[in-house]
Amino acid sequence: MENSTTVRKQILVVDDELSILRLLTFILSADYDLVIKKSGIEAISWLEEGNDPNLIISDLMMPYFDGGTLIRNLKISGLYRETPVILLSGAEDLEDKVRNMPFKIDSYLEKPFNPAVLKSKIAQLIN
């Protein structure tokens, strides 16, 4: 039985697609506290308030301020350099894009993704 004083891990989810946000909420909210942001700009604002999630799940392609820009800014800042990141994307060449990024991405999944695979990756990174 889980101890009632157990602190749940917090995941920042950044995606502009409502269907993906709903899916992630459905599969993850029982086990984690989710903070949902619909753009990189919203995510940066939330993080600048001093919030420190255990993990960030971000879409790669979003308007204005994409996931690559978001993660690069976080890794450069130093404050979130060690925060694990999972990128989600519908891009066909996602593996090449991740490989060519000038910073470390802990994991990535192509959309549509298998919820069990996502949960397994999260568990490996923060549990």
Automatic annotation (TrEMBL):
GO biological process assignments: phosphorelay signal transduction system
Stored Pfam families: Response_reg (PF00072)
Location of the Response regulatory domain: 10-126
Name of this chain's protein: Two-component system response regulator
Transmembrane annotation, as ranges: none
Keywords recorded for this protein, A-Z: Phosphoprotein
PROSITE patterns documented for this protein: RESPONSE_REGULATORY
Source organism per UniProt: Pedobacter ginsengisoli
InterPro entries: Bact_response_regulator (IPR050595), CheY-like_superfamily (IPR011006), Sig_transdc_resp-reg_receiver (IPR001789)
Residues that bear 4-aspartylphosphate: 59
